[in-house]
Amino acid sequence: MQKELNKLKTLQEMDDRIFEKDDVLEALPEENETLLTENSELEEKLRELRDAITLKEEEKQKRVMLLQKGEEKLKTITGKQTAIKNKEEYQTLVREIDNIKRFNRELEEEIHEIEREIEIKKSELDLIEKDHKARIKENKTRIDANNEEVAELEASVGKMLDKRDGFSQSIRPAISRKYQRILENSANGKAIAVANDYVCGNCNMKLPPQLYNNILKADKIEMCPNCQCILLPPPEVKEEREAEVEEKKK
Ligand SMILES: [Zn+2]
Which residue of 49, 64, 135, 206 sits 20 to 30 Å from the alpha carbon of 118, by its own alpha carbon? Predict the structure, then answer.
């Protein structure tokens, strides 16, 4: 039975290594998800700023055109001064000229205000664009590396599973099935634990003395009454027993 227990120990070690890789395999796509979200947010921020600048430039352009029209109008109306016949006409013309001048002045102020806003947005863009672009590139490299690692891990886990299944064939079927059942019901992926000094190495429960003595004898499968792990004798006992067996052989 000691031999079967040793095989179970090896099987558990193989499963531990497979579980470790499975954990990484689960974590990598989650990390990629986070990186992709970050990249969309960074790209969105850059796009928003660029759009805002475009919008402001369009606003400015509209006013520049209005101002051009206003200046032409002013030129035309000033030219009419020579055709004035009386005081009334003169006053009307002066009022009109004043109105156009005021309108043009307001447009100029608006254009300057918009230009200031564009400058602020452009310097904000300058400030973050380089950083954002570098970060996006870095994240993309990381995502590619993660995808590569996933492919490698999948291949390697596939090989490990084949090897593990091959090895489990060498264990007595009833014992191998029992191990498998415990493993599938286990919360932490453990089906095997070493019992040491009356304590289960998996859940730390104190074991009844009779059970512990049976474990030390290692002539049948004993399980922890609490976590259901198959219990192995502590290594030193095993070595002593192996030495005894060696002694008997001589
Ligand atoms: Zn236990």
Answer: 135
* CATH topology assigned to domain 18-168: Helix Hairpins (1.10.287)
Q: What residues does each domain of the chain span?
A: 18-168, 173-249
Q: What is the pLDDT of residues 15-63, one digit of tens each?
A: 999 999 999 999 999 999 999 999 999 999 999 999 999 999 999 999 9
DSSP string, 176-208: HHHHHHHHHH-SSS--EEEEETTEETTT-PBPP
Ligand 1 centre and the CA of 196: distance in Å? 11
Query: Would you say 63 and 111 are in contact if contact means Cβ atoms under 8 Å apart?
Result: yes
How many Å apart are CA 12 and CA 183, to the nearest integer?
A: 9
What rounded mean pLDDT belongs to the chain?
A: 94
How far, in Å, is the centroid of ligand 1 from the Cα of 202?
A: 5
